[in-house]
Structure formats: C-alpha cells, structure tokens
C-alpha cells in the first residue's frame, strides 16, 4: 500500500509567517485521521502533499497517484456552468461513446474512450452509492447544494482510483444519511487515506490518528477514543511533572537560602572568635578568605542546583498543553420544568412560490429545559424553521407564541456581535450591569486573557469567535431561556467543539440545535429528537 513521506519540509506565507520548519514524518498505508486546532496548518499541509503549494525547503514523496478534495467547494464560481460530467472528468469519454453509438469509428474517438468502456456503469455506481441517483450528468454545478457538490467531488476522486486520497473535512455540509454513505464509500476505498476531520464518527473509523501539535506530527495508533485517552494521560503526566518540578525548585531555593544563612552565621561567629583569640592580622585574613571561598563554593553548588530545577520546570511547562477547558455555572439561564417556553401552530412558509412545509403546517411545543435536536435532510427547511421561531422570518400561515424570556439564535455565521469592538466591549453591551471585575472574570472563564482582550471580534479565529459569542449570549441581560443553534459545530476544530459542549452542558434553559454530528448531540445530552422531512415534523 502507498505511503506519504514528508522530509524536512518548510513553508511560509508571503508575509514571512512561518507555518512549518523542517517538518518530517511518514504516513503509512491504511486510514489516517489528521487533527489539530484551526490555524495549525492542516489544510496547508494537505495542499503541500497534493502539490498545490510548493515548499520553501524539503519535499514530499508520494508512492503512487494522488487524489485531493479540499474543504471548500472545489469548483470556482467561474466554473459554475460546468456540468456534473465535467467535474467527474468523463465528459470527453461520454461524448466519444455517444459518437461511437452514432456510427463514428474514427481513431480519435477510440483514443478518447481508451480503456474506459465501462465508465458509465462505474460513474453511475459511484453516484448511486453516494445518494446521487437522480443526478443527471448534464446538470450544472450551480444548481447543486453544498453537500451535493462535495459528494460529486468525492465521486470524481473515487472514479480516478488514486493510490492516495486526501480529504479535508469531507462531512461538512452533509446530512446524516449522506455522512453514512460517505463512511461506507471510504470503508471500501483500497488505497491510502489521509483525512482532516472533526467528525468523531469518521475519526473513529480510522486506523490511527496523526496530531499536528506545535509544528510536529505525532502519531497515535488505534481508534479516536484511544487517541483521546492517550492525550488525556499525557496531560495528567505533564501536570504531575510540573507539580514535581515546582516542588523541587522551591526545595532547592529553600536549601540555598538556608546554606547562605548558615554561612553568614559561621562567618560572624568566626570573626568574633578570631578577635577574641588575638590572632595576627595575616592569619586572621587568611581564615576569613578561606571561609568566604568555602561559602562561595557552597553557594555556587546550590545556584547550579536551582538553575537545574528551573530548567526542569521550563521543560515540564513546555510539555504541558494549554488548558482549553471551559468550566461554567449559569444559574440565571434556568427554566423551571414544565414551564411553557414556546408554542407554534400551523406554521407554513413559501419559498419562490413553493410551500416548504406540509399543508397542515408545523406544530411545535417546547416546555421546560428541553434539549431538542432538529434533524433531517439538507434543504428540508430546518434553518428556515429556526428563523421563524426566532421571529426573524414571518410565516405565511400560523403563529408563534413566546413565553416571557429572551431567545438567542446562533446562526452558522456567528454574526451576533459587533465586529469592530472587542469581546469585552461586546459583553458590556449584552450585560451592561456587570461590574468590570465580574466581566473580566467571565471573559477569563471563556479563555479570553491578555492580548485576546484587545482584539476586535473581526480579528478573532473561528474558535475565538465562537467563545466570544457564547460568553455574550449566555451572560446577556436578561439571560436567554431558549437557544436556537444552526449547525454550531460546522468549521470548528475538536477543541472548539468540546468547548461548545461544555457551555451547552452548563446552560440550564431550553435549546433546539440543528446538527448532523451524532457525537456532538450525544455529548450535549439531547433528550428529544425531531425530524423535518418532506414538509412534516415528526
């Protein structure tokens, strides 16, 4: 099976920002999941392996052909008029086969077909297994959803049968059914697979996990669960090493201070004894110098031991991962059990003259601190329903009744905050009665300290923007009793997903979350599942 060998690879952006410096590793055959925080360089690394970027130094050797599917839609707007057949790379072959069927037996036609006489059967098989049975080959790309585009891109790569397949967040924009079809297709892929993902179900199907950490690749054999256990064990070990090193440093400092105090006491006693003994000055001077040299040597020994202990502490602290956990208590968000939060009756909505929901409309009751997952195929109207419930859209028919209490809607764009203000300024706007001390404490709980407090929201990373939105929404005045979340884990790294889970587990109100991430839904303790399909909510 093919392998990927990266040797002393270095890469910088045009502004001289260094991404990799002498990176070396080997990806063996089989299935490897690549994880790291957003901004660590995962996507850049895949582009370097695929040959889309050129390294400043070092190189990449791939044993065999490479297929690559990026995270964003791999087809530019300029190519929007291209068809499914164009993307699948079979348009010339299909044209040649049609020409043969029409009686054209020229050499050019046979050359175009090559060995791909069964291409139509193969591509139809790939499209069918990815849920694209009704997709015609002449369909323009601009008419496809994001999930359909990703599935077509994957089908194109699988049709080419590469030895090595590189995928960047392939389950983004896919609903539950499409995800399971992708899992099955990748299970059957016989080549070497390297996948960037925060989808824990997909990562759980890998043979190993590769973590990009502080510019180096570290491999963990076994399942994703074994990876998380290994990382947690390493964290506990590093914390223990830090505590031991801190204790040793304190001990060495204390012993050095005690040694200095004893030396000073001996020097004072010796001086009195010399004076009382009436020794000649030359003898007394020598005794004094000898005592000073002895004290200096002892002090030098202790100083070296202190330096060694300090170095050991520095090494231990460098091995310690940043504490990225969020620990919260949100008593103001509590909603009593059984209390009515929202009642919707007969909701209907038209999009371009088409009824999105069934004729009898959508009914929805939310009571108490319910944790509700709203699932269903892409395009069913889940996001539209959330926007109607939030009051952002008015239904064509039906009505929504809200209880007293604030509703907060977190869209996929995370656009609730003032982009030109800092997180602290935004929090002050959401909760004006908070004291400065309390505001700083809340921001620290959400890991905003130091320089991050001075940056405008627009300059924050995706994970930081999520935390900024959460700290403002969850501590708003009045506190929200109902949260509406639309695909909150899309485009987040694993650390940010865990932080979102911590925040929602601390939240005591009701929420409705649209998500296809089963691991996420399980982690946040969903109690009720609703499915919207074919205009019906069940």
From TrEMBL:
Which parts of the sequence belong to the ABC transporter domain? 4-239, 342-537
Source taxon at top rank: Bacteria
GO molecular function terms attached to this record: ATP binding; ATP hydrolysis activity
Q: Which InterPro entries match?
A: AAA+_ATPase, ABC_transporter-like_ATP-bd, ABCF, P-loop_NTPase
A Pfam family annotated for this chain is: ABC_tran
* Stretches for region Disordered: 251-273
Name of the featured protein:
ABC transporter ATP-binding protein
Q: Which organism is it from?
A: Mycolicibacterium hodleri
């Amino acid at each position: 099976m093919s392998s990927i060998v990266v040797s002393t690879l270095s890469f910088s952006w045009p502004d001289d920002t260094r991404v990799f410096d002498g990176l070396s590793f080997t990806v063996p055959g089989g299935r490897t999941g690549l994880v790291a925080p957003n901004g660590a360089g995962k996507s850049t690394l895949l582009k370097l392996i695929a040959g889309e970027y050129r390294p400043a130094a070092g190189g990449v050797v791939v044993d065999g052909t490479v297929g690559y599917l990026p995270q964003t839609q791999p087809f530019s707007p300029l190519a929007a008029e291209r068809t499914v057949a164009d993307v699948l790379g079979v348009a010339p072959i299909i044209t040649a086969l049609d020409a043969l069927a029409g009686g054209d037996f020229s050499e050019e036609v046979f050359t175009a077909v090559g060995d791909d006489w069964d291409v139509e059967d193969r591509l139809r098989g790939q499209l069918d297994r990815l849920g694209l049975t009704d997709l015609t080959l002449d369909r323009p790309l601009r008419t496809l959803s994001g999930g359909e585009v990703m599935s077509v891109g994957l089908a194109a790569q699988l049709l080419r049968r590469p030895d090595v397949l590189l995928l960047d967040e392939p389950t983004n924009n896919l609903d539950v059914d499409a995800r399971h079809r992708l899992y099955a297709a990748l299970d059957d892929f016989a080549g070497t697979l390297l996948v960037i993902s925060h989808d824990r179900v997909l990562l759980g199907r890998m043979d190993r996990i590769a973590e990009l950490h502080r510019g180096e690749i570290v491999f963990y054999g076994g399942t994703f669960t074994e990876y998380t256990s290994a990382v947690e064990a390493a964290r506990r070990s590093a914390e223990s090493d830090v505590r031991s090193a801190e204790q040793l440093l304190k001990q060495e400092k204390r012993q050095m201070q005690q040694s200095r105090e004893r030396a000073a006491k001996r020097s004072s006693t010796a001086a009195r004894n010399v004076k009382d003994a009436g020794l000649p000055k030359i003898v007394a001077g020598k005794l004094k110098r000898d005592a000073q040299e002895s004290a200096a040597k002892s002090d030098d020994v202790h100083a070296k031991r202190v330096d060694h202990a300090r170095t050991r502490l520095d090494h231990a602290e460098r091995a310690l991962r940043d504490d990225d956990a969020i620990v919260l208590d949100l008593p103001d968000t509590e909603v009593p059990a059984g209390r009515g939060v929202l009642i919707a009756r007969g909701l209907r909505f038209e999009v371009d003259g088409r009824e999105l929901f069934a004729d009898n409309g959508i009914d929805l009751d939310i009571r108490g601190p319910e944790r509700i997952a709203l699932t269903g195929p892409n395009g069913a109207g889940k996001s539209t329903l959330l926007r109607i419930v939030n009051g952002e859209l008015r239904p064509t028919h039906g009505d929504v009744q809200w209880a007293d209490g604030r509703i907060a809607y977190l869209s996929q764009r995370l656009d609730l905050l003032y982009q030109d203000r800092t997180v602290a300024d935004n929090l002050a706007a959401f909760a004006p009665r908070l004291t400065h001390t309390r505001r700083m404490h809340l921001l620290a709980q959400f890991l905003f300290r130091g320089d991050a407090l001075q940056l405008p929201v627009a300059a924050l990373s995706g994970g930081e923007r999520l935390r900024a939105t959460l700290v403002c929404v969850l501590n708003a005045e009045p506190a929200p009793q109902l949260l509406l979340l639309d695909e909150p884990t899309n485009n987040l790294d694993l650390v940010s997903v865990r932080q979102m889970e911590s925040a929602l587990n601390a939240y005591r109100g009701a929420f409705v979350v649209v998500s296809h991430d089963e691991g996420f839904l399980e982690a946040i303790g969903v109690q009720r599942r609703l499915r919207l399909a074919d205009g019906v909510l069940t």
